[in-house]
Amino acid sequence: MSYIFPPAEIPSVPINGSEECYPVNRIYCVGQNYSDHVKEMGGDPKKNPPVFFSKPANSIVTNNSPVKFPSATNNLHHEVELVVALRGGGENIEVSAALQCVFGYAVGIDFTRRDLQAAAKESGRPWDTAKGFDQSAPISAITPFGEEKQPGEGRIALSLNGEIKQDGTLAEMIWSVAEIIAELSNFYELRAGDLIFTGTPSGVSSVSPGDHLQAEIAGIGEIEFDIVS
Ligand code: MN
């Protein structure tokens, strides 16, 4: 079979300690998964299960490349997140088996057009234009993890122009990585190459062209880049 034009490149993420790359299939995201962030957005952390949404696979930005400030927003927010990279999947995965699907972890930013998200929430419309835009998912290199060794409860933090904005720990996650994988697999047949952004701690704020962002998760990695116009 031949294509009428060259197919788009497969998005991929570098892997720490490897010459090989991780090919991205899909990007799923969890909303409202840290108790303080749910409170700052006006919600009750225990009331509802997390919200799932997605981004296009080609919205990743790798290698600390600059991110172009997107069109159609006056309020672009950073959300630093633990990203799970799957090496396997399936449907209706049990929580006890979920970590077998994990290849490794990375640090990601779930960029959000907060003004469009607020309007979508207000009118009950989808979040796609608020969340799934070009370059909306900068990601660090992936650090491989065995099933027996997991990220634990390390610090997750983001600073903007050297000032700390988000500073939490993975212990604040309402739903664990295993619970997220299990729940997500009730909606989608997960597979190798799927990335899952697992929600953000409190302290989200807006960014502008010229800003410099640095984010890290203890034991997993670091990401650092500029916002450009
Ligand atoms: Mn998020």
Which features characterize this protein?
alpha+beta, six-stranded mixed β-sheet, five-stranded mixed β-sheet, 14% helix, 229 residues, Fumarylacetoacetate hydrolase, domain 2
Walk me through the structure.
It is a single chain. 14% of the residues lie in helices and 33% in strands. A six-stranded mixed beta sheet has the order 4-3-15-8-9-12, with helices on one face. Strands 6-18-17-13-14 form a five-stranded mixed beta sheet, with no helix packed on it. The chain has helices spanning 35-40, 95-98, 114-123, 128-131, 177-184, and strands spanning 12-14, 21-23, 27-31, 51-55, 60-61, 67-68, 76-77, 80-86, 102-109, 112-113, 137-138, 143-144, 155-160, 163-169, 195-197, 206-207, 212-217, 221-228. The radius of gyration is 17 Å and the shape is globular. The protein has one domain: Fumarylacetoacetase-like, C-terminal domain (Fumarylacetoacetate hydrolase, domain 2). The protein has five helices and 18 strands. It is α+β, with helices and mostly antiparallel strands. The structure holds manganese (II) ion.
